[in-house]
Amino acid sequence: MKKHKKLIFSLALIVVLACVMSISASAEDVSDITDTSSVGSGDLGLLGANTLDIIISLTLIALIPSILIMTTCFTRIVIVLSCLRNAVGLQQTPPNQVLIGIALFLSLFIMQPVVGEINETAYQPYRNGEITQMEALEKAVVPLRNFMLRNTKEKDLNFFLSISNSERPESLDDIPTLVVIPAFITSELKRAFLIGFLLYLPFLIIDMVVSSTLMSMGMVMLPPTMISLPFKLMLFVLVDGWQLVFESLVTGFN
Question: Residue 20 CB: number of other CB atoms within 10 A?
Fold first, then answer.
């Protein structure tokens, strides 16, 4: 349990550090103004600007879960599991909470090398006072960028570079992070829907066979899904479907 908490905390450090720096800077400026009655209009404007910075920082903190979800392997995993559930024909089994939990722990398993590198290169030096907050943030982003670049298609990367009117980078390190993230998300969505399509095929064949059999027997009033569902569940269990799906998801990341 302590290990999982450490992994989650280290992964969240990437975004939290930037928000903490902004909040701490704003708090120091606000603390210097102790008597609003003795300050001028310029100081009051500064106080309002600091308050706005705090509001923006708190908003960014609220978006941390979404940012971490979209920059890791969570997106592909949860879409594939949802497609699998619909392909089998079970609308509410497993429930959404179970799918989210499976996707979360699979993401932690896949991202463990990245989180470990962030912990060694950014969090531990910052905790020991060896580097500043800004240096820790810069070092923490590097492993996550490398993970996203390894799993981003070149076509998607070139597309976002072209529409952002960015100069042609000489190396991958020169690509802006704001270009890498949407390109990575697009690649993940494409792969997730492709895997979902392949998962649908065997179950679709079973539905077609059962439907054709029922029509040939004249049982047109009997819903085909009522008969095909047990066969799809039996097929999924016999081929050890969960292990095959998890294996393909884990090994699918570079």
Answer: 15
Reading the block at residue 125, the tokens are: 């030096």
* CA–CA distance, 151 with 127 (Å, rounded to integer): 30
User: CB-side exposure of 118: number of CA atoms within 13 Å?
Assistant: 26
- The reported pLDDT for the residue numbered 70 is 83
Residues 16-63: tens digit of each pLDDT = 444 444 444 444 443 443 344 444 444 444 444 567 767 777 777 777
CB 138, CB 21: distance < 8 Å: no
- Residue 19's pLDDT is 44
Q: pTM for the complete prediction?
A: 0.72
Query: Higher confidence at residue 172 or residue 97?
Result: 97
**Are residues 136 and 17 in contact, defined by beta-carbon separation less than 8 angstroms?**
yes
**Distance from C-alpha of 82 to C-alpha of 243, rounded to nearest angstrom:** 16
Mean pLDDT of the chain: 76
